Amino acid sequence: MGFRPGIRNLTIQQQEAIVNECAEGWTLLELGKQFNISESGISKFLKRWPDKGGVPEVPKSGRPRSTSHLFDRNVLRLSRVNTRLTAVDIARELCDLQNPKPSVRTYRRRLQATGMNGRCPDKKPMISTKNSKALVEWAKAHKDWTKKEWKDVLWSDESKYMLIGTDMIQWIRHPQGTRFDPKYQIPIMKHGDGNVMVWGCF
Known about the structure:
This protein is 38% helix and 7% strand. The radius of gyration is 30 Å and the shape is elongated. By secondary structure, it is mainly alpha-helical. The protein has helices spanning 12-23, 28-35, 39-48, 69-81, 87-93, 104-113, 129-141, 147-150, and strands at residues 156-162, 195-201. It folds into 3 domains: 7-51, Arc Repressor Mutant, subunit A (Orthogonal Bundle); 69-114, Orthogonal Bundle (Arc Repressor Mutant, subunit A); 123-201, no CATH class. Residues 72-144 form the Transposase Tc1-like domain.
C-alpha cells in the first residue's frame, strides 16, 4: 500500500525547492519522485505559487493534524472493506504508514468524521441462498394476487416476551469495585424460565 505525504505536509523550504527546480527544467515526474508527491499534486501546487498569482501552502494555526488526507482515506477504505474491524484492528493494519503513530482515539475520530460510527447491527433470520431464491420466486408468483385471494391466507407470527431480565444490551454506570453489588446487576434465569413465547394468527 503506497503512502504519499502531500503538498500540505511539506515545509516552506521544500516547497521553494520544488519551484526552483521546476524553473531549472525538472519535469513533474522527476519532482514527484524526489518529494514523493503525485504529478497532479505538483502541477496544482505550482499553479498556486505567488509568482503565478497564488498563495504558498503555509502551516495553519493551531495544532496540525497528525494524519494526512491520504492516510484518512486508507482508514475509511479498510473500514468499508471489512465493516467489523474495530479502531484497534485498523490501527494495527496501518501502524507502519504513519509516523508518529496516531492514537486509537484518532482513528475513531477519523471514522466518525465520515459518518462511520460504531453501531450494533440488526439481527435478522439467517436465510440460505436456496431459500432466498425460493422466496423471491414465490413473491413474483403472487405479486398479482387480488385482495380477495389474500383474504384466504392465514397469517401467523410468534414473539418472545421476557419476564425477567432482557435480551437487549443495557449500559449502567457503577463506582469502581462495585461490579458484584446486586444493585448493579441484571437478574437472569439459567434454564429458560424467564420468558414466554406467544403465538397468534389472523
